[in-house]
Amino acid sequence: QVQLVESGGALVQPGGSLRLSCATSGFTFSTQFMSWYRQSPGKERVLIASIVGYGGSAIYGDSSKGRFVISTDSGKKTMYLQINKLEPEDTAIYYCMTVVNIQPYWGQGTQVTVSA
Question: Model confidence over 29-52: pLDDT tens digits?
Fold first, then answer.
């Protein structure tokens, strides 16, 4: 059974940093392609970054380069998203996602709120 569980969201001040986690199970982590998305209030869900479980090169969405860093820990079967220099516009629910046997799986999301 594929499971994705996000954590690490919080209320933070502008300029701060956060590291989000996505704990996974139910598939071979090291070879799995996984992604982080976010959905801001009233907007569509957008891709932030993607990576394969063993690490290596990451792919970033056009609006994500510079302040976002995606990474993995194969031993913990966990994917991370480091967000630096947080801005109010980063307020959103952050989701991890993967596709197994052509079926997409999403976590429940973790809320990030950036406010002074």
Answer: 999 999 999 999 999 999 999 999
Query: What's the CA gap between 57 and 59, in Å, rounded?
Result: 7
pLDDT in tens, 6-35: 999 999 999 999 999 999 999 999 999 999
Per-residue buried b or exposed e for 4-14, using 16+ beta carbons within 10 Å of the residue's own CB: bebebbeebee
For residue 100, what are its two tokens? Answer: 């197994």
Distances in Å between the Cα of 105 and the Cα atoms of 9, 79, 83 are 20, 14, 23
Instruction: Give CA separation, 86 vs 6, 68, 114, in Å.
Output: 18, 10, 7
First to last CA, the chain: 40
Q: Are 22 and 6 in contact (CB under 8 A)?
A: yes
CA distance 87 to 48: 15
